[in-house]
Amino acid sequence: MKARVHVMLKDGVLDPQGEAVRHALGGMGFSGVESVRQGKVIELDLADGTGEDTVRDMCEKLLANTVIESYRIEML
User: Which major enzyme category is it (predicted)?
Assistant: First the structure.
C-alpha cells in the first residue's frame, strides 16, 4: 500500500519560494499569474496493515510543521 501526503503552507503564512516562482514566471512573460503557493508531496510505501492513522501520526510528528503547514493524506 502507498500513501501520498500533500504539505502546504497555511493561508496567511509568507511563502518566499512561491513569490520567487511568481516573479520568475512574470519575467518569462507569463503575466497572468497573480500568486503562487509552493508545497511538497511525500510518497510513502507502507507495510501491510499500516493505516491512515499511522500516516497522520507521521505527519504530526515529522512530515509537516503543523504550526505553519497543513497536510492532506491520500491512501493509494
Answer: ligase
pTM recorded for the entire structure = 0.87
The CATH architecture annotation of domain 2-75 reads 2-Layer Sandwich (3.30)
Lay out the sheet containing 2-9: strands in order across.
40-45, 2-9, 69-75
- The domains of the chain are located at 2-75
Percent of the chain with pLDDT over 70: 100
CA distance 29 to 27: 5
DSSP 10: P
**Strand ranges for 35-76 from DSSP E:** 40-45, 69-75
